[in-house]
Amino acid sequence: MQEQAFRFGRARHLVGIAGLPSSAARETVGVIVLNAGLVHRIGPFRLHVEMTRRLNAQGYPTLRFDLSTIGDSAASGESQTRHQQICADVADAMKLLGEQAACQRFVLIGLCSGSQSAHMVACSDARVAGAVFLDGYAYRTLGYHLRYYVPRLLDVKRWLGVFSRRRRAQQGSGEPAFTVAPLPQAVVRADLAGMLERGLKLCLIYSGGISRYFNHARQFRECFGGLVRHPDVFTRFFKEADHTYILTGDRNRLLEQIERWLAQNFPVTAGASS
Predict the structure, then answer these.
(1) How far apart are CA 9 and CA 131, in angstroms?
(2) Which is more confident, 118 or 162?
(3) How far apart are alpha carbons 17 and 29 in whole angstroms?
(4) CATH of the domain at 80
(5) One-character DSSP codes across the chain
(6) pTM for the complete prediction?
(7) Which one, of 141, 102, 103, 137, lies nearest residue 118 by Cα?
(8) Does any domain span residue 9?
(9) pLDDT-based confidence at residue 170 (cuts at 50, 70, 90)
(10) pLDDT of residue 153
């Protein structure tokens, strides 16, 4: 495997690092990892570096890059909405990885706002074969509220500290660093259904770091209904993990799960290993 830096894109404004296994087969999907918030392409605490290098070792071509105006990437100079810009940037990334590793299909991976970006592209680009949504769209459900409030109502110590908590809440929201602006729940359900109809494989992994709006594995079904029973949908809830998987054990479990999911759904053909 070799890593190579590229400046690319329709205005040569994008910067990324491609990981290119020595003999990737044409059938192998390329994996593209998108920015989490304003963190540049290495990811939170180098998560994207570890992820792409592990996937390279399994034979997957990868690209971690900065979207327009993030990290080392500049503006394209075009008059576009943010949605149009993200889709165009990812299209440029697909073109680059296709040229360098002969990939024709791609898996997108994004954490939180990166998941939102992956969702945008997966809705419309036929080259997307799968997506890994990390701490993506989620909604507080009746089940969420019962699991959140009932234990607190029965905890006397929490009642004694209620006023101090309110003061702290006024000083700061405590929301995750890479907050996803919500789309309506019905829109997201319809989007996911459309992806599945087109044959995409979906992996939804959520952490305990977003407990302000997601707190149990059952919430996948509460949010997205029968879609989560589709054979091409995989869900996993890592309750003990934080939002950025900073602890080594949590990070290893996440990366091992992504590796297994890719191997099961997009196996590397013989002769495509590093």
Answers:
(1) 22
(2) 118
(3) 17
(4) 3.40.50.1820
(5) -EEEEEEESTTS-EEEEEEE-TT--TTSPEEEE---TT--TT-GGGHHHHHHHHHHHTT--EEEEEPTTSTT---------HHHHHHHHHHHHHHHHHHHH---SEEEEEETHHHHHHHHHHTT-TTEEEEEEES-S----HHHHHHHHHHHHT-HHHHHTHHHHHHHHHH-----TTPPPPPPHHHHHHHHHHHHHTT-EEEEEEEGGGTTT---TTHHHHHHGGGGGSTTEEEEEETT--TT--SHHHHHHHHHHHHHHHHHHSPPPTT---
(6) 0.89
(7) 137
(8) yes
(9) very low
(10) 75
- Between residues 64 and 26, the one the model is more confident about: 64
How many domains are contained in the chain? Answer: 1
Residue 270 is assigned to a structural domain of this protein: no
Q: Which structural domain, as residue segments, surrounds residue 158?
A: 2-265
